[in-house]
Design brief:
By secondary structure, the protein is of the alpha/beta class. Helices cover about 15% and strands about 40% of the residues.
């Protein structure tokens, strides 16, 4: 199989809020947008891959449990403290959680999809 690109499609109910969340908080560049009747999509650059946000999902703003939201989007960053400051400035109450394998910030997007931010320095080590 000759894979030319990888990507994820995230169906959302709170489309505009989710696009703003990933575009503004994580600074993912917008590649393109499309609308056909009630269907909308926005495609964001996802570090060489793409994150396509589409309508048609169902929100659970308090957070989707693993059983119904099995995917977690992960962002590995060089400065976890700076990431935490940015998350809090965005209006999200979050904290750094330390584990034997590394440190993370866990949060939910506006639809309740699980999102993690991790220190990139230890990724792949001590696993």
């Amino acid at each position: 199989m000759d894979i030319e690109q990888t990507g994820m499609i995230l169906n959302t109910e709170r489309f505009d809020a989710c696009v703003a969340f990933y575009r503004d908080l994580f600074e993912l560049p917008l590649q393109f947008e499309k609308q056909e009747d009630d269907f909308r999509l926005a495609c964001l650059d996802f570090g060489g891959s793409y994150l396509m946000i589409e309508t048609g999902g169902r929100a659970q703003p308090a957070g989707k449990p693993i059983e119904s939201g099995a995917v977690k989007l992960r962002f590995n960053v060089s400065d976890l403290d700076a990431a935490l400051a940015k998350v809090r400035a965005y209006g999200i109450d979050a904290r750094i959680e330390s584990h034997p394998w590394g440190s993370t910030i866990n949060l939910f997007d506006p639809d309740g999809n699980r999102v993690g931010i991790r220190d990139a320095g230890r990724f792949g080590r001590d696993q």
